Each structure stands twice: as structure tokens, then as C-alpha cells.
Hints:
By secondary structure, this protein is an alpha/beta fold. The chain is 39% helix and 12% strand.
Amino acid sequence: MPNGEYLRYVALGDSQTEGLGDGDDTVGLRGFADRFAEHLRAVNPGLQYANLAVRGRVAGQVRAEQLEPALALRPDLATVVAGVNDLLRPRFDAAEVAGQLEEMFAALTASGAHVVTLTFPDIGKIAPLARPLASRVLDLNDRIRTTAARHGVSVAETAAPPVTTDPRMWTVDRLHASPLGHERIAAAIADAVRLPGSSDAWTHPLPPQAAPTRRQTAAAELRWATAFLGPWLGRRLRGRSSGDGRTAKRPRLLPLSAPHDAPADTGLREAPSDPA
């Protein structure tokens, strides 16, 4: 829409879109989608916003569980962010993930929505033990760009600026953005849709800080593997997910000031298969 005149925004995705890393389940999650909605509301006070994302979902689950409810809400703007949970799977198939994303891009753009997605930073620069996944990230990002171009989908290139792999942009689990990271992602999406008042300031580096010593780095890797990698692998072996039994936090279009953490029957709950 001209001048960013979006009035019905719907977010689809996994834990990043739900807002993990920015708040918690006690005080409530914020996240980049909520923050981007705040950018939209500054331009359009009448904005209504829904967030259908559920943590742990792979791209196929996002399509299967969230696309139909999203279309029913008739958004004029939608964000679709999924694929990281797929990247972490042993049997990752970039073409399959891109195909799931393309189905969502095609359906939402055909309904008249402006769709926005993003590319992913190299997680090996965030968690050194994940360096073998770098080629997967590059492959998926290339496919996201190609697929997005076919459907006129805007892409926030969060893979490119070095700041996106700054440790301060991530929580201690290294999988979810910190509040600062979510803020920068929201600004990147605003920039991608040329929202009035947006800019490329989200790409600017953070103030310099002292680099850790090798001993500090090794100790941090051990703590991370013990506190986060081990439990994650344990859930995989048990076929469990952090999203088991969860539904969307904001299943209906509501003004941004409306409460969004009340339980609701969303129709999005399904038996878990193999989520993260």
C-alpha cells in the first residue's frame, strides 16, 4: 500500500515471531512482530494485529497450522518467518523448506497481502559449535530470495550486516534474539517495506566491546552445550517440542493496545509431530 497504509497485520512463524527472548511467559512475550506492529501503529493508529506463531514449529507446520487462519483474517500485510527449526534437523531439505514458504507466499500475495520475510544470519558465527550448518543457511537464504522474488515478497536482509551476529543481539541460548535483536529485526522489516520513518540504522554496529579470551570462549561454549544444547538434543530424542500443547498468543486481529495474552480457542492446536 502507498505510504505504508497497512491496517491488518498478521504474523506467521515459530518462536522468533512469537517473541522468545524478549520477555517471558510470566510477563508476556514481545518480540519483533509486536515491535514491528508498533512501527505500523505509529503510521496507522487504526492498525489491527494478529500473531499466529507458535514456538518449535518447522516450516511445514507453520503452513499447515497457520496459513488458513491467516487467510481468514484477510491481512493487507503479513510476515512469514520460518525455517530455522528445519535447519537444525539432521535430515534438512532446503528445497522442501523453500517449497513450504513458497506456498505461503503464493497464497497470501494472491489474497492481496503484502508479504515480508527475512534471511537468516550465519548461526555458526553466533554459536561456534553450529559452524557445520553454515552451508545450510546460505542455501536456504538463496532459495528464500529466489522464491520471494517470484511472488513480489519483500525481504529484510538480516543475513548481511555484521551486527546481526553480534552476541548482544542474541540471548544466552544463541537461538533466539535478545530484546535488542528483536528491536533490530523489527526495524529491518520496517525498512524493507519502506515504512515512513524507517531507515537502515538497524544495520549500524553496536559500540565496541572487549573480545573474550580463548579461555573465556571455551568456558562459554561448555556452559552453552550443557545448559541448552544437551536439553535440546534430549527433546529431539524423546520426540518432544518446546511448543507442545501451545497455541497462538494473539489469534485474532485486535488493536495493538488490546490484551494479547488471554487464552483463546484458536483452532491451531495439533498433535505434535517433530517440532523443535
